[in-house]
Request: fold
Amino acid sequence: MSDAAPRTPRVFSGIQPSGNLTLGNYLGALRRFVESQERGVDSVYCVVDMHAITVWQEPEKLRGTIRELAAAFIASGIDPERSILFNQSQVSGHAELAWIFNCVARIGWMYRMTQFKDKAGKNTENSSLGLLAYPSLMAADILLYHATHVPVGEDQKQHIELTRDIAAKFNHDYGVDFFPMPEPVIEGTATRVMSLRDGTKKMSKSDPSDQSRINMTDDADTIAAKIRKARTDPEPLPETWEGLAERPEARNLVNIYAALSGETREAVMAQFAGKAFSVFKPALAEVVVARLAPISGRMRDLLADPAEIDRILGRGAERAAEIADPILARAKEIVGFVQSR
Ligand code: TYM
Reply:
């Protein structure tokens, strides 16, 4: 492993198995992962179970959520033969490199992270040490594979910037050009899907209100009901996208429609200009159901055979470790560790 290793393009991304997957995870992440795979880029996708336990998870429930998330990757179109799909805790290099990065990154960098502030709330002193160090593990996830591109939703941009800071400081401190500077890939129409109850908050699997989100496993009636009750304003839809500038809830719904139908926002605006939400919402529900129903159906089929999911994750972890092991070994050598077995 030479230090200035050739930067062949490689995609890495991860999702936490920490509850219901939402339409935000699908549009901001999963669907983009499938696009990378289809472009033929070397792609590594990870169920980040070690990140999930930074907040309490019931062990039995976590095991189920890990398998469910793996099923969601496959049902969304990730082919575990073409891409690498595995769960993080099966490749020990993530934890090992994260430790090295814990000693490179500064505590102040961690306190500045929005996700830490949101999740720790007022109770910083009482949150887990893992929650604070979380971005260092995320940097290890990405850099353990020398990944160059990281498809994520808007909310993860700050963590990727921190990953670049950690890579740069490691390279600088040790006088090497070993870790690449990964690029966040945040593009398209729905990089930030908002809550159905509040158009200024992101749609999140941890929001206490289930009405705020569409879960990937919601059935057609539930999806239609949630969209019908989604907060909007009394005005009909305007003719142009710009006309929605001050209307976050309406903008969010149009964005979702455009992302799922594959139409531009302008085309959606032209189609629904002057129409009331009583017309737009049922059309939106139809588009959402048409996209999610086949995925949740396939997820159910896959989950009927958990042993097969475990086999896929195990095989994925072996392939992931083949890439990770030499990179970790070289990182340890750079740091000055003696490795004699
Ligand atoms: P997580 O599990 O919260 O979310 C997984 C992915 O879904 C995207 N996402 C959204 N996109 C658009 N609109 C939304 N409302 C929305 N909600 C979630 C997220 O941006 C993310 O891409 N720290 C990461 C997981 C992680 C990771 C990594 C990602 C760990 N290691 C390495 C990339 C590379 C997280 O908590 O994502």
Summary: Strands lie at 10-15, 42-47, 84-87, 149-151, 183-185. The CA atoms of residues 239 and 269 lie 6 Å apart.
